[in-house]
Design a protein that fits this description.
Length: 243
């Protein structure tokens, strides 16, 4: 049996990149997937590729009203919501503290942190009604050990880690599990240009991570295989954080 057979999942920021791979792997594992993103053309193209068990919704994750609409449309289309993957996020180039503008800091906070709160709050009622659910919040290794010249990003990812624990404590009695995933250096379209032999030799596993490896962890946490895991951090960094 497929690991996510008949489960309904909302995945944010899923029109491209890591989120799109998560969506594809979820479909392959039997889930019905709501792909949300502000990138409408790319989101629709992905859903056309994924087939009848996928739906795209244009979604600003910083909008409370959009979150309410996404959950309502998911229930209308597929009947319920079993899984939320808070994947949407942004970063800035490395900057000294004094060069980070307040507007930049607030934008990262809104997209990386506040949206996670909005998402958990939006799905809680339907998951409570079902007395089950899995919320997977994508944080970062920067939410465990920090990142140099990344104060806004680090702050937001530490916040995701903390909110995950608070939500897990509150929602556990309803059989709703909440966990955070903390990728390290993963090979993506945004990082390929940075990868070289010297960099990879600095990692304990001597290579960058693959998006599919992150997807594997997300699927594990979304599935019933992780039924006794909640309020925890799951690190995928090739040992980088252990140094």
């Amino acid at each position: 049996m497929a690991r996510l057979s008949d489960k309904v999942a909302i995945i944010t920021g899923a029109a491209r990149g890591m989120g799109a791979v998560h969506a594809k792997k979820f479909i392959e594992n039997g889930a019905k997937v709501i792909v949300t993103d502000i990138l409408e053309d790319e989101g629709k193209a992905l859903v056309n590729e994924l087939g009848e068990n996928a739906m795209f919704i244009k979604h600003d994750v910083t909008s409370e009203e959009d979150w309410e609409s996404v959950v309502a449309k998911a229930k209308e289309k597929f009947g319920t919501v079993d899984i939320l993957v808070n994947n949407a996020g942004i970063d800035l180039p490395a900057q000294n503290i004094e060069d980070v503008e307040t507007e930049q800091f607030r934008k990262i906070t809104d997209i990386n942190q506040t949206s996670v709160f909005f998402g958990m709050r939006a799905v809680a009622p339907v998951m409570k009604e079902n007395n089950k659910g899995s919320i997977v919040n994508i944080s970062s290794l920067a939410g465990i050990i920090g990142a140099n010249q990344k104060i806004a990003y680090t702050a937001s990812k530490f916040a995701v880690r903390g909110m995950t624990k608070a939500a897990a404590l509150e929602l556990g009695e309803f059989n709703i599990r909440v966990n955070s995933v903390h990728p390290g250096f993963i090979a993506t379209d945004m990082t390929y240009h940075l990868i070289n032999d010297e960099l990879e030799q600095s990692f304990p596993l001597k290579r960058a991570g693959r998006i599919e490896e992150v997807s594997g962890m997300v699927i594990y946490l979304a599935s019933d295989e992780s039924s006794y895991s909640t309020g925890a951090e799951f690190v995928i960094d090739g040992g980088l954080g252990a140094q």
